[in-house]
Amino acid sequence: MRLGGFWGMTAPVLLLAFHDIGEIKSLISSMQRTVNTDILDDLKTEFYVLSKVSDFTVVDTGLNDANAIFIRKANTCTFENGHLMVDGAISQQDAEFTGELTRLLAEMIIKGEQKGKFVNLDGNDDIVLTLRLCVTRWFKDKSFSLLKTKQMVRALYRSIATAKTCLNSAKIIEAFGFKRVIPDSIMLNGEVVKINASVKAVCSYYVNRLDDIHELLHFITSDPMREEKILDISFFDLIKRKPISFFYIVLSKFEIAKYKPSANLIRNTVDTVWDGVNLYKECINKHVKVYGESESIDTMTYEFFAELQSAFSKEKRLFFTGIQYADFTSEDFAQLSLIYDRVSVLSADYFNHEFGLHLSKEEWLSVFKEVCDLCVYGLNFHTLALFKSSIDTTTLTFADNVKKDKEYMDSLYKVLDDVESLLSTMRPIGEVL
Predict the structure, then answer these.
(1) Are 157 and 108 in contact (CB under 8 A)?
(2) Dihedral angle of Cα 118, 121, 127, 130, to the nearest 10 degrees
(3) Where does the pLDDT of residue 259 fall: very low under 50, low under 70, confident under 90, or very high at 90 and above?
(4) Alpha carbon separation from 371 to 16, 115, 337 (Å, rounded)
(5) Any bridge partners for residue 55, and if so which?
(6) How many other CB atoms are found less than 10 A from the CB of residue 383?
(7) CA dist., res. 433 & res. 427, Å (int)
(8) H/E element holding 180?
(9) Helix (H) or strand (E) holding 378
(10) Residues 228-257: pLDDT tens digits?
(11) What are the residues facing 401 on neighbouring strands?
(12) What average pLDDT does the segment 187-195 reach?
């Protein structure tokens, strides 16, 4: 795969340059209508890899000091017959304590899943209420010292464990408002590696955008249209070639008859080629627009392109100088202009602002390498140059907007007529006409 094939932006850079996921979807939608399936496939892979940053997180439930809380309460409270008691009476904090027990159980379920241990909560939409009822029912006749609180909740957890694989962590995290955070150290290649503050800040940014990452993964579709094949060749590849090339493709289909003469083989080949000719004509009618014959072709003229450039800054004008403006519609160019505005500011200062850091460019280069260990690949200071290169190499051939001049189409129709004439005269030797 090619990193940064989507207009020169890698997945981490794309999220950094565009905070609004709607804008990202708009860019992707435009690409989906083209034949750049490899670019979208690579982008989807990039987002999938980036999503794996979650593998290095731990869940912050807000109960990191749970033991201290229970120890303090043990000085004044007891737990008897399902209630928190103070001086022989139910404490005003009884409901709050049940909530703490519920959150502790939720935390154990999450940690259990990380170790391959599961609890079956299928079919329960309100997961907070489900776990709270589970706690209430299990503790209703229990009495114990609060010093044993975690031990008792662990016993409850074991009682509802199942051998069936049930993934509840994501639902629990969302329902309880827990957060995924990057820890101070991780296990990497069998060794404990400390995470410095800069790496933690960068990776935390993408952890906080996991919802966007997953939404974009679901949104990206690399093949929204059926790409028709004419005699085993993509229509969009075929229409780029010289018209006469189709005649030679047809002739090659009959080459085998020289070595394996067979009436059935010839008939089948003739039928196959006829199908190819008919499909080629259908695709031409559906996808090809001839210059001067359709108002729907909104490719830019030099005058219009020059007018747009006149409003640009000197740097932006210089950037777009020399591009093949006739290959783009005004809508295409508006998106390219927007991308330029976003990626041209990707400097060390921009990264510092977005990630809340104060690093020099040299320090950032080191961070770019370090975050790769946590699946954040492709942060760089070269996106503008990569964008420039991608404009020259990305073909915006749309499914309903392949543009050809009249001379090309006249030649192509002449070739198709010649092929049809050839096919209409071909019969196996001995067959009655």
Answers:
(1) yes
(2) -110
(3) low
(4) 15, 25, 30
(5) none
(6) 25
(7) 8
(8) strand 179-181
(9) none
(10) 789 888 787 788 789 999 999 988 888 766
(11) 398
(12) 89
SS3 17: helix
The DSSP call for residue 142 is: -
**Six-digit token pair at 247?**
């005649």
CB within 8 A of 420, min separation 6: which ones?
277
Q: Determine the Cα–Cα distance for residues 258 and 238; give it in Å rounded to an integer.
A: 26
DSSP for 279-297 reads HHHHHHHHHEEETTT-TT-
Q: How many residues does the chain have?
A: 433
Write the DSSP assignment of 289-346 as a string of letters: EETTT-TT--BPPHHHHHHHHTTS-HHHHHHHTT--GGGSBHHHHHHHHHHHHHHTT-
Rg (CA), the chain: 32
The values of phi and psi at residue 295, to 5°, are -75, -10
Which of 79, 89, 71, 90 is closest to 138 using CA atoms?
A: 79
pLDDT tens digits along 292-314? 654 444 567 778 888 888 888 99
Residues 6+ apart with CB under 8 A from 317: 309
**Alpha helices in 52-196, H assignment, sequence order:** 66-74, 94-114, 127-139, 149-160, 169-176
**What tokens appear for 338 in the block?**
């927007």
- Which CA distances in Å does 332 have to 26, 245, 313, 335, 339? 11, 31, 19, 5, 11
Angle at 378 between CA 355 and CA 361, to 5 degrees: 55
Nearest-CA neighbor of 319 among 227, 371, 399, 383? 383
Half-sphere exposure of 157 (CA within 13 A, CB side): 21
Q: What percent of the chain has pLDDT over 90?
A: 48
What residues have CB less than 8 Å from 253, skipping those under 6 apart?
Answer: 231, 269, 272, 273
Find the angle CA(167)-CA(120)-CA(97) to the nearest 5 degrees.
Answer: 95
Please state, in angstroms and rounded to a whole number, the distance separating the CA atoms of residues 32 and 40. Answer: 8
Q: What confidence score (pLDDT) does residue 7 get?
A: 94
The span from the CA of 7 to the CA of 299, in Å, is 20
User: 209-226 b/e with 16+ CB inside 10 Å = b?
Assistant: bbebbeebbeebebeeee
d(CA 255, CA 303): 51
